[in-house]
Amino acid sequence: MIYIEFIEREAGTPIEVFRHLGNQQSAWSEEATDRMILQLGRTLRVGPRPSYLCLWEIPDIGRLDAWEEYFHSNAAAENRRSQAMHRAISIQRAGLYDVLWRAETLDSSLYLILYCEPGGATNEALINAYQRIDTNRQLLLLRRVGKAGPNPPVLAIWGGPTYVALEPLIRDGDRQAWNVVDLGIYRPFGTEIL
After folding, report:
1. 194 found inside a domain
2. For a 10 Å CB count at each end of the chain, is N or C smaller?
3. Does residue 193 lie in a domain region?
4. Angle between helices 80-88 and 15-22 (to 10 degrees)
């Protein structure tokens, strides 16, 4: 399961401070079983707000219970880095997603996310459509768990080395199995161009 934070920089927070405090590469608590798999920043303002996404792989929905317990504990109150981070960033929304398809490695210099409203398309139809596309590197296909997250419910993520390499996907956003309602181009957190 993937937990996605949709993040925006607090107005007035210098980008250098935001990037320092917002970097979530380190574990947020001692016994965390969560794994941050992608932290992305919208680049050249191509795509919707919020401008940043942080994708966490969690074992199951039970992690939310563990997070609640931690954030109500003394350990959370004493975690200075976590306290500072939450003053520098604004997590606008979060969502839970099932992984329909995933590549072995998620590393890329550029990421294209298609935000899709697939209507009644089944998971199988989405996976089949995703796997028929040869352009660039397919990385992740995610579907929101019920209504636990923002619209639209499907995120299709590709990686590419350049904008030119991503252009066929940008131009051909109308896939039969999906209704692409928006797209965004991202770089790894800290390398995005504002």
Report:
1. no
2. C
3. no
4. 140
What is the tally of structural domains in the chain?
1
Residue 142 in any domain: the answer is: yes
In a domain, 75, yes or no: yes
Distance CA 94, CA 150 (A): 8
CATH code, domain with 52: 3.30.70
Q: How far apart are CA 194 and CA 190, in angstroms?
A: 10
The pLDDT value recorded for residue 12 is 85
Over 60: is that where the pLDDT of 157 sits?
Answer: yes
Give the pLDDT of residue 134: 65
Contact 13, 24 (CB under 8 A): no
Range of the domain at 28: 2-188
- pLDDT band at 173; cut points 50, 70, 90: low
* Chain segment 26-44, per-residue pLDDT in tens: 655 556 688 999 999 999 9
